[in-house]
Amino acid sequence: MRLLYNFLKDMRLSSKSFYFYLEIGFTVIIIAVLLFVVPENFENNLSIYLHLDVDDALYGEIMGTLGDNSTDEITIVDSREALEEAMSENRSSVGLSIYRENNQTVYNFVLQGYEEEKFKNIIKTTVETAFANEMFGDTDNITVITLNQGVEKLSDRINMIPIILTMNVSFMGLFIIASYIFLDKEEGTIRALAVTPNRMWEYLLGKMGVLLVSGIISGFLLMAIMVGSKANYLHFSVLLITTSLFGSALGLFVSSFFDTMTKAMGWLFMIIIIFALAATSYFSPSFSPMIIKFLPSYPIMFAFREVLLNNPDINYIYMTALGFGVATIVLFIAANYRFRKTLTI
Amino acid sequence: MITVKNLYHSYTKDDRYAVKNVTFEIEKGEVFGFLGPSGAGKSTTQGILTGLLQLQQGEVNVVGYDMRKPSREMFNKIGVSFEQSNVYNKLSALENLEFYKKLFDVPTLDPMFLLKIAGLDHVANKKTSEFSKGMKHRLTFVRSMLNNPEAWFLDEPTTGLDPAIASQIKDIIKEKNQAGTTVFLSTHNMYVADELCHRVAFIIDGEIKLVDSPRNLKLQYGEKLVGVEYKLGDELKKESFSLIDEMDRLKLNDIINNGNIELMHTKEATLEEIFIKVTGRGLQYNETSI
Ligand SMILES: Nc1ncnc2c1ncn2[C@@H]1O[C@H](COP(=O)(O)OP(=O)(O)OP(=O)(O)O)[C@@H](O)[C@H]1O
Ligand SMILES: [Mg+2]
After folding, report:
1. The pLDDT of residue A137 is above 60
2. pLDDT band at B115, cuts 50/70/90?
3. DSSP class per residue in A102-152
């Protein structure tokens, strides 16, 4: 019951504060940008640098094959050195060097180095099949690896939504809940609460409730306008609620190490920036170093992406939700424990 | 009702103590005052007694609860008013009290009644951000009465208030005490301590120097003085005579016998004078108050 009173009081307080509208306002701005500025799809194809050291006949054949492949940007370079140089300037590119050695055609793939194994295989297989099968019929030493699942593609505009949900809904909460707590601390009202039978967890959970409300409003607003009835809102709600709670629990936990907003701000800011790095891997899966996969934002983005697909990986969505649900509980208990000792000093 | 034994507290968790070896006991129905200058450790002691600061060393028992592991239930029985007012600025005075009222598991007083006591009933629905400092202070004060506390902790209850309001607050404290509430009162104002407290503790640099009733202190430390204005020829003379000093008494006797006295009044030592005598330091209060 007290939890409810805390929540209602905090709703009332925050509905009069700027922070409550920060997230929702941001969402509205983002929706406008998505609708009016961002094109449905933008060109972002993988560039291929090609170096050919073969006789004229083969050269002609290769060029002929490439002629009808207009989606990928292919640039012919003069030398192997030029190829590597071009690649170092364009990080979303791969290189292919074809030359003759010992009477055999050698296909030498040059990759950036941070591509995932899966991605390497895609490139290798695609190019190998394209070149070798069609042109030379020599398929003896080529292995074709079939991927586990067909990759469903989202429009570029819709593809941005998981990032917005992750950053604006799940992790904006870090900042906002910290502001709420420190505002109360400055006002001294935390001390007044601390001398009533009210419990710390009731206070903290009430605050998380407020964040959840603004998260749900922002999340549903974004989804309803951008995606409409196509998404599965059950999966979406489960994921939205768990990750939003996770964001605010993490915010509480981090805040519990500081006694003023100013001190906490730097760390919170850094955490959000680091979490945002996951977006780079989200957009170009070829860049997925281990360290980014360990960021909580990474699975959240991909789980939100699943929600948007026609055939979502239900297992992935719910495992992610479960994982973040458990993490939320752990963080909340830790934050509660720390705050009970430090918040009223 | 409240027992404190060998209490130490250091904010820095080292040997720089804000409160040092503090021991005292408060009986049920008593008004117990902590009198001391700024930085003496009054608020720190109140903080520990009300669970805002963790008990580090010593034994503290408040309304039957061991403060080493205070139960939340305890807070149904105590009321705490703060040195600095702390109310929700975005809520009205009434909303503030309505919210706190719901947090208790015991019968509570009517918020409107409390606002009336505080002289805030005419601004009950005004946001407290529009309140003056004194108005917020009064709201903080009456909020601490919501649950009809058995033990009432008041940190500088009248500081910064105008004399009329301060005197109203003092009346409320007296009334509540007569109804049985035990009061722990911190102040650097000797008049408040003198007027309200059954016993006062002199605290300075975190240590209690003595505990006694204001009356006993005055009897023990106060020199009784008589101020006299008398005519000597055409000249009007003003002099103070100690009732203890032999020479003074003879002189006074002389003047009385000559019968030229215009005005005569007894002066008793103030708690502040006694405080200075005992601790060697003044109360150095800078905010004017009654
Ligand atoms: N939060 C804190 N952190 C560190 N030191 C503190 C803190 N609060 C008080 N102190 C120190 O503890 C000592 C006692 O302070 P306290 O507030 O208890 O004094 P006080 O008697 O209430 O004074 P005042 O009349 O000014 O309210 C002071 O030296 C003060 O500087
Ligand atoms: Mg104080």
Report:
1. no
2. very high
3. TTEEEEEEE--S---HHHHHHHHHHHHIIIIIIII---TT---PPPSSPPP
Q: What is the residue-wise DSSP string for A214-235?
A: HHHHHHHHHHHHHTGGGS-HHH
Judge if pTM exceeds 0.90. Answer: no
Q: Identify all chain A residues contacting B86, using CB atoms and an 8 Å cutoff.
A: 187-189, 191-192
Is the CATH code 3.30.160 the one for domain A47-136?
no
Confidence category of residue A69, pLDDT binned at 50, 70, 90: low
CA of A264 to the centre of ligand 1 (A): 24
Residues of B within 8 A of A187 (CB-CB) are: 86-89
First-last CA distance in chain B = 28
Token pair recorded at residue A142: 């080529």
pLDDT the model gives residue A43: 55
* Residue of chain B with shortest Cα separation from A345: B53
What is the ipTM score, two decimals? 0.83
CA pair distance A78, A90, nearest whole angstrom = 17
Contact A192 B100 (CB under 8 A): yes
Residue ranges and CATH numbers for the domains of chain B are 2-214 (3.40.50.300), 223-267 (no CATH)
Burial A257-273 (b: 16+ CB within 10 A, else e): ebeebeebeeebeebbe
Nearest-atom number in ligand 1 for the CA of B203 is 21
Helix or strand run (H / E) with residue B265: strand B261-267
**A331 compared with A131, residue with greater pLDDT:** A331
Instruction: Determine the length of chain B.
Output: 290
Chain B nearest CA to A345, separation (Å): 6
Q: Would the CB atoms of A341 and B54 count as touching at under 8 Å?
A: yes
pLDDT digits (tens, 9 = 90+) for B5-62: 999 999 998 889 999 999 999 999 999 999 998 889 999 999 999 999 999 999 999 9
